[in-house]
User: What shape does this take?
Amino acid sequence: MPQQNIAPTRSNLFRTRQALKLAQEGYEILDKKREVLMAELIRQAHDATVKQNQVWQDLAQAYRALSEAQLSMGQERLEWTALAVNKSVEVEIKLRSIMGVVIPTLEAHGEPPKTPYGLGDTTVALDEAVARFGVILEAIPTLAEMLTSVWRLARELQKTQRRVNALQYIFIPQYEATIAYIESALEEREREETFRLKRLKSKRAPAEVGPPTREYQQPYRDIGGGKPTSYEFG
Assistant: This one.
């Protein structure tokens, strides 16, 4: 729908054409960005899904082994054994950009010792649980990086999609309709001006009529002095 409140002038027509050109260029750029984000999101989502399923499976097996260790060692003894772990894993966060989207990269440094407790008072189930949780501890930073990347890419894709839709279905058609409205108004104004000039020209033109003619009669002259002439008697 055209902007009816805009004056149909040539300057406004020029500005509207420039705005339309800018909107079309922005639409092309955002459309390419949307395609790149979509491809990257599909790839990251697939990798994150595979990694998440693997971590869930490892967690299920690790908690199963921990439950067996709890049954064999007892809750209190298991808690005292857990206190022997005095080291932790440090995670460093680095940032990178994909089409303007900031994506974190996580790097884990350090790991807890393989056997932080004595082997005399523990069971095989506890050793299995510790080994499985160690694998999960290494996979969690990678999974967190993937899930965060997917979430940020999806959010940016949603914003880009809204902008593309706004340009495609609102701004560009509105600019095109406004340009058509101004051009139509200017053409109508030019036709009215041409008609007015022709009408003024026709009123100012002189009438093509010749000078008036007069008929003159030769005046009668009495050359006989009042006497009859010879030709009057035959």
About this structure: The longest strand covers residues 90-98. DSSP finds three helices and two strands in the chain.
